[in-house]
Amino acid sequence: MSDPTTENLKRTPLYDVHVEHGAKLVPFAGYEMPVQYSMGVKDEHLWTREQAGLFDVSHMGPCFLSLEDGIGGGDEAHAKIAALVETLVPSDIAGLKEGQARLTVLLNEDGGILDDLIITRPIGEAAQGSLYIVVNGAVKDADWALFERSFQGKAVLTRADDRILFALQGPKAVDVMSDFFPGCEELKFMHHMPFELNGTSCIVSRCGYTGEDGFEVLVKPEAGLPLVNEMLTDERVKPIGLGARDSLRLEAGLCLYGHDMDPTRDPVEADLAWVIQKVRRERADFPGAERILKARTEGTAEKRVGIRPLERAPAREGTMIQVDGQPVGIVTSGGFGPSVDHPVAMGYVRSDLAGPGTKIDLMVRGKARPAEVVSLPFVPHNYKR
Predict the structure, then answer these.
(1) What is the full DSSP assignment across 8-28?
(2) Which of 331, 359, 329, 354 lies closest to 343, judged by CA?
């Protein structure tokens, strides 16, 4: 989970909270981030599945994109900002209802994945013509530079990565959150609401990257620090580090950018074709549409799959996959799944080997170890639909 860079690391507004709670800090995406706390990765993982885990994700790239000629103007303004963004993503942004969010991917000209991101249409007449967007921390500067080049003279980007962005995940998250944000329990998965906290506006989204029900909150530090500190006094809440965040998302079968998807992969290979709604497939007006739609109808040479090692040794990223001694793919994410009590992995294999139950070998420490292709996720999702 760590990044080799050790110089000039940034700190999120929650840095002192991490130190106070005994975090082990590591370099990650240019920041000093907590990889674990005193409980350890396994217990933090299981706590999140059973209670409520609080994650600092302030290193991510929250931002607002607004029409340069001003916001407000209802559906017409939304259609205008959506048309700009749809030149870079294959999802239906115009069709978002107020308060609805959508996971999508940022594409290069060839249809390769530059990042995955969440785009939300705000609530209220006065906010139409703007979008709330969260990109990945490791590539946020590149993403934002692409937005500014692409939308120059048409839209204005406002960074919000000076704020606190935290996630509260797990079955008890909704009860904890409703104490602070009454009404948030009515939100459904991938929807958001604006709230006011001690005179400061903030955004509460029902989403997350653990497979559990949960929320993400974007709030300025002056209101966010007291909020986080108070939440951490609740016996249902524990701080959770990057180690458990990774094992939780892996059990949930969720991609990590730069590992399970990158510019060499298109959404069909990555098993993300579902982000392309019918209206966009029919228009075929997104970057790399010819390649992607051809892949959707004719198939791809490789496909992202779930992998279950049949022995206790985990298969880490970069592990070669073989069948009959011949290379047929590679592991892109792997580790131990505390909830299922066995190793779990994801990777790419030849499409003719992508069916669940297919027997494969994983080259772990120079030895072929048995495994099989399985359906994702390893742990069922518990989102509120």
Answers:
(1) S-B--TTHHHHHHTTPEEEEE
(2) 331
Judge contact between 322 and 328, C-beta under 8 A.
Answer: yes
Mention every residue, 6+ apart, whose C-beta is less than 8 A from residue 18.
25, 33, 34, 56, 239
Asked if residue 305 lies in contact with residue 347, where contact means CB atoms within 8 angstroms, the answer is: yes
Give the tens place of pLDDT for each residue, 208-256: 999 999 999 999 999 999 999 999 999 999 999 999 999 999 999 999 9
Q: Could you write out the DSSP letters of every residue in 343-368? A: EEEEEEEEGGG-STT-EEEEEETTEE
Give the tens place of pLDDT for each residue, 88-119. 999 999 999 999 999 999 999 999 999 999 99
Sign (positive or negative) of CA dihedral 376, 247, 244, 118: negative
At 34, which helix (H) or strand (E)?
strand 31-36
Which tokens in the block code for residue 175? Answer: 């009860």
Interatomic CA distance for residues 85 and 94, integer angstroms: 9
Distances in Å between the Cα of 377 and the Cα atoms of 63, 193, 244, 381 are 30, 28, 16, 8
Q: What is the maximum span of the chain, computed from C-alpha positions, in angstroms?
A: 64
DSSP-derived secondary structure for 49-116: HHSEEEEE-TTSEEEEEEETT-S--HHHHHHHHHHHHTTT-SS-STTPPTTBEEEEEEE-TTS-EEEE
User: Which pLDDT tens digit goes with each residue over 249-275?
Assistant: 999 999 999 999 999 999 999 999 999
User: Which pair of structure tokens corresponds to residue 52?
Assistant: 């409520």
Name residue 147's amino acid. F
Strand-pairing partners, residue 66, are: 130, 156
Q: Which two tokens stand for residue 126?
A: 């006065």
